Amino acid sequence: MLGIVPAAGAASRLQPLAFSKEMLPVGSTFDERGIERPKAVSEFLAERMIAAGADRICFVISPEKTDIIPYYARHPAAERFCYVVQDQPRGLCDALFRALHVMRDDEDVLIGLPDTVWFPVSGFSLLPEDELAFLLFPVDEPWRFDAVVTTGERVTEIQVKASRPKSNWVWGAFRMPAWTFKRLHALWLEPHRGDEYVGTLVNAYLRRGGQATGLTAGERYFDVGTVEGYRAAIDALRPVAVAHER
Amino acid sequence: MLGIVPAAGAASRLQPLAFSKEMLPVGSTFDERGIERPKAVSEFLAERMIAAGADRICFVISPEKTDIIPYYARHPAAERFCYVVQDQPRGLCDALFRALHVMRDDEDVLIGLPDTVWFPVSGFSLLPEDELAFLLFPVDEPWRFDAVVTTGERVTEIQVKASRPKSNWVWGAFRMPAWTFKRLHALWLEPHRGDEYVGTLVNAYLRRGGQATGLTAGERYFDVGTVEGYRAAIDALRPVAVAHER
Amino acid sequence: MLGIVPAAGAASRLQPLAFSKEMLPVGSTFDERGIERPKAVSEFLAERMIAAGADRICFVISPEKTDIIPYYARHPAAERFCYVVQDQPRGLCDALFRALHVMRDDEDVLIGLPDTVWFPVSGFSLLPEDELAFLLFPVDEPWRFDAVVTTGERVTEIQVKASRPKSNWVWGAFRMPAWTFKRLHALWLEPHRGDEYVGTLVNAYLRRGGQATGLTAGERYFDVGTVEGYRAAIDALRPVAVAHER
Amino acid sequence: MLGIVPAAGAASRLQPLAFSKEMLPVGSTFDERGIERPKAVSEFLAERMIAAGADRICFVISPEKTDIIPYYARHPAAERFCYVVQDQPRGLCDALFRALHVMRDDEDVLIGLPDTVWFPVSGFSLLPEDELAFLLFPVDEPWRFDAVVTTGERVTEIQVKASRPKSNWVWGAFRMPAWTFKRLHALWLEPHRGDEYVGTLVNAYLRRGGQATGLTAGERYFDVGTVEGYRAAIDALRPVAVAHER
Residue D241: its pLDDT value, please? Predict the structure, then answer.
C-alpha cells in the first residue's frame, strides 16, 4: 500500500518560516528513550498511513523543501519513505500524479495533506478498500475547503471553495485502488483539463460514470497551514488532550 | 552597539527538529500587511537588542545552522545581522568571543540566549551602561541555570547549575563595554582556563577585582530549549497574553 | 526500465567539497539556448540510462546530499528522477536494495556509479536483456576496483580489490531483470550475509548456480572519485574530445 | 586588515550548478596529511588576502549561498571568516558596503572577486598602503571587464564594459584605507547615485578630486565565471603549472 504526501506547496499563509511548513512542530511524541520531543505536523499523516498498512510513503516535494528528507531519515519508519519532485507549483493533482513512479499496479493508494491533523487515527482503515473513498470531516468554515456533497454515502459533487457550499463536510483524506488512480490520471491528461484541484477532477470523473464514497467518520480536523489552525492544533494536542484521545 | 547571539549549540533537548532550535515558532507577529505569522523564538532576543539600540547583531552559528541566514535576510532589520561560525561545539564562551571580529573598540555589547523569551522587552535598556551588568530573572528551578548571588546590586558569585543555589535569580541577558569584553577574553585565554560557561569565567573575573552588577528587573523567563519551556512560552505568548503584556 | 544510482557514499577521497561529489563538474553540455555550461559528473550516468530506455531513475542519497535534488529538478528529464534515502553508510548493496520501493515486477534494472564516466554512451544497450550482465572496462589498476574474471562471456568470479587480480577488466555498470534483483536481495538478507560490496554477493549468487554475463564492450572508464581520475576525466572530456567521441 | 569578498551574485553564465560558483573546483591543494584535494576557486582570493595580512575576511553572500559557510568552517584559517548578507541582487557596490559592519576605523581593506584566479600570489602586498590602489592585469578582451586608464600610475578613468576601451589593463583587485572606503560609501549614498558597478563610483570619486593608483603588476587573470575562463584556469593550474608558478 502506497501513501502519497503532497508537500510541494509553498506556505503562503505562514511565511516566513525557516523551514518547510510540513515540519512545523505540533504536539509531541516520545522517543525510544521515553523523552518527549516536538512532533512535525506531517508525522501525523505519516503515522495514520502506516497504521492503515502503507509500506511505502512517497513525499512529493518542491526542490526547496529538502529539509524534509533528513528529518524522515531519522524516523522510526525511515525505510518506508521515498521522494519525487514537483519542480514548479503546478497544483495538487500534478503533484499527486508524480507519485505514479512509485505506484504498483495492484495496490491501494492513501492520500492526505501533510499540514493537517485529524482524528480518529484509524481514519484510513475505516475507508472501504478497492474504491475511491473520501474521509469526511465536519468543519465550521467549509467555504475554505473542498465541501463534499453526498447522497447517503455516495458522493454527488465536490464544491471547491464555494462561497456557500451545500455541505459542511470536507474531505481530509482519501484512498483508492491503483487502477482508479490511473483512470483519474488519464482523465487529467485529456486536452483542456490538467485540473489544479482534486475536486474538479473528481467531479468530471463522476460525470463520466465513476463512483465515489464519502464516509462521515472524521471527527476533528485541523488545518495547520494557517496561524489560527496551527494554534488550534497546538491546543488540541497538548499531552492531556492526546492521552484522552487515544 | 553590538548584540551577540550565540546560536551554535545543538538542540540536544529538543531533537530531532527539521531546523535550528532558534527558529522554533513561538508566539506570533504581524507583518507589514497586518497578517499574523509565526515568530521564530530568536526574534524575541533580536528585537530586545534592537530596542536597546543595537545597530549590529552578530549570530554565532555552527556550520549546520545556516537556515538562520535566509530567515533573517527577510527580517525588517535584515541589514543589521552578520554571522561568525563556531565550527566545533567548544562552549558558550568560545562562541561569544568569536564575535570579536565584529566588535568595535568603543561600543557596548549586549548578550542573550536565542532560545529564551523574557520580559520586559526593555530589559537591556534597564541595565547600566559602561559596566558588566546582568539582567536577573526569578525562576522556579535555579539549579538548571546560572544562579547569580548578589549583595545589593553587586554580584558576588555565579553558581553554575549548582544543586542547591543560594539564589533563585538567574541571568537571562547581560551587557558590558567592549573593553570589559576584551578583558574577559584575555582572562579566558590564560593557560588552563578556556571556560565553557560564562559563570566560571565571571567568577574568576570577580576574584581578580572585577565588578559586576546584577539587576533583579527581569519579570518572566522562558527557556524554549526544552519541551516544557517551549510549551510554557507558547501559552504565555498567545495573542491576548502578548497584548496584555505590552 | 529503472535506473538505480547509488549516491549515498561520502567523498572521502575528495573531501572537503562544498557539494556532493556526484555534482562535480566534468566536461560540459549545451543548454536549450545553445549555451555551454558545466556538466555534473552524475549526468553522464543518467544520460546513459536514459539512452537505454530508463523511464525512471532512482537516486539513493544520504540525508546530507540533498543538493542533488534541486539540480535534477532542472534537468531536461526531470520527471524521471525519484529518491530514496540511505540514512547510514551501510555499503553499496544496502543502498541499491533501497530502490526496491520503486522497482516494478516486470522491468529491467540498470545500475551504475554516479562518480564515473565511461564510454561508449550506448553501453547499457549493448548488454543482453533479461539476465544479469556486467559491462566490463579495461583499466590499468584493476586492484582498485572489482575485477571480473570470465570464461568466454560467462562470469566466473568477481575479485574485490584483490592485490593481484586475474583480470584487468572491471565492471563499470550492470543490468538485470527485476526478478534477479529480488533473488540477489533475498540472498543478501540471509543470516551472516549483508554484503557491503556487489562482488562478494555476486560470487555467492554464482556459487548457488546463478549465472552472469560479462561483456568486454567498455572502452574508457574514469573514476572521478579521486583527484587523479577527476583530472583525467576533465582532460578526456574537453569539447574536442567529446565531439570526436560522438 | 579586512578582506571583503563579494559572493552574492548569481552564476548566470554558469548555471545550473549544484552549488555556489565560488565553490567551483579549480586546481588543487594538499591537506595537512599531504593528500591532494580539489580547491574551491574562492580559496585563491582568500589565500592572497591572508598572504597580505588580512586577519578577517568578510564574505558577502546571498541568502541562497550558505554552502560557502560549512566549507570555510573547515579551512585552515577558519577563524578569520565572517559573513554579511545581501538579500537582493543590488549590485557590487551595495554588496561591498554591507561589510561596513565588520570594518574598523583604522585598517586597510582588500577587495577581490571570488570567481577569479590571478597571479602573482603576492599581488595585494604589491599595492601601496593608505591609498586607493588597483592591481591591474593585461587581458585579451578588456571590453568584458572594467578597463582602467592610467597616466603613469595615476588612474584617470575606469571604463565599464566599454566596447572599445582605451586600455587592455583591467582591475582584478584593489585596496584602500577604511576612511577612503567610507568616503566612497558616502558618495554612493548621495541622491541619484547608488552605483551598481565600482567603476562609475570611482570615476565620480576621481572627478571630486579623489586619487587612485593603478599598478600594472598583475601577470595572469582568469575569470572562472564563464565556461571558457573556468577551463583556462583548470589548464593553468595543473600541478606542474602551479609548481612552476610558485
Answer: 44
Q: Pairing mode, if any, of strands C146-151 and C154-160?
A: antiparallel
**Of A61, A78, A53, the residue nearest A2 (C-alpha):** A53
Strand-pairing partners, residue D160, are D146
Interface chains of chain A (3 or more CB pairs under 8 Å):
B, C
| Residues with Cβ within 8 Å of residue A243, at least 6 apart in sequence | none
Rounded to a whole number, what is the distance in angstroms from the first to the last CA of chain B? 25
Q: Which residue has the cell 553508510?
A: C89
Are the C-beta atoms of residues D28 and D36 closer than 8 Å to each other?
Answer: yes
Q: Any long-range contacts for A203-210 (C-beta under 8 Å, 24+ apart)?
A: A203/A157, A203/A158, A205/A132, A206/A155, A206/A156, A206/A157, A210/A132, A210/A180, A210/A183
Distance, in Å, from the CA atom of A201 to the CA atom of D82, rounded to the nearest integer, reads 52
CA distance D85 to D65: 10
Q: Which residues contact C178 (CB under 8 A, 6 or more apart)?
A: C2, C103, C104, C105, C106, C107, C108, C109
Beta-carbon contacts of B211 under 8 Å, excluding residues fewer than 6 positions away, are B131, B132, B154, B155
As a whole number of angstroms, the distance between CA D126 and CA B64 comes to 38
What proportion of chain D, given as a percentage, has pLDDT over 90?
Answer: 87
d(CA C185, CA C204): 12
Nearest chain A residue (CA) to B71: A18
Task: Tell me the ipTM for this assembly.
Answer: 0.93
Helix (H, G, I), strand (E, B), or coil: what is residue D23?
Answer: helix
Vertex B116, ends B115 and B120: CA angle to 5°?
150
Q: What is the pLDDT of residues C196-239, one digit of tens each?
A: 999 999 999 999 999 999 999 999 999 999 899 999 999 999 87
Q: Cβ distance D86 to D61 under 8 Å?
A: yes
Which residue, chain included where needed, has cell 560522438? C246
In angstroms, the CA D58 to CA D6 distance is: 8
- Pairwise CA distance, residues A237 & A41, whole Å: 11
Of D15, D18, D37, the CB nearest to C227: D37
Check if the beta carbon of residue C134 is closer than 8 Å to that of residue C215. Answer: yes
Distance of CA A41 to the CA centre of its chain: 12
Say how far apart CA D244 and CA D242 lie, in whole Å. 5
Nearest to B103 by CA among B174, B176, B198, B9: B176
Longest pairwise C-alpha distance within chain B: 55
**Nearest Cα residue in chain A from B75:** A16
A119-170 pLDDT, tens digit per residue, is 999 999 999 999 999 999 999 999 999 999 999 999 999 999 999 999 999 9
Contact D114, D6 (CB under 8 A): yes
Under 8 Å between Cβ of B83 and B177: no
Q: Please state the separation of Cα B141 from the chain's center in Å.
A: 18
Measured in whole angstroms, the distance separating CA B117 from the mean position of its chain's CA atoms is: 9
Smallest CA–CA separation between A97 and chain C, in Å? Answer: 11
- What are residue D197's DSSP bridge partners? none
Give the mutation candidate from B13, B14, B15, B17 for the A interface (greatest A CB count, under 10 A).
B17
Q: How far apart are CA D218 and CA B5, in angstroms?
A: 41
Interface test with A, best of C60, C66, C74, C81 (most A CBs within 10 A): C66
- For the purposes of burial, counting CB atoms within 10 Å of the CB of C13, is it exposed (0-12), middle (13-18) or buried (19 or more)? middle
Question: Cα C18 to the chain's mean position, in Å?
Answer: 23
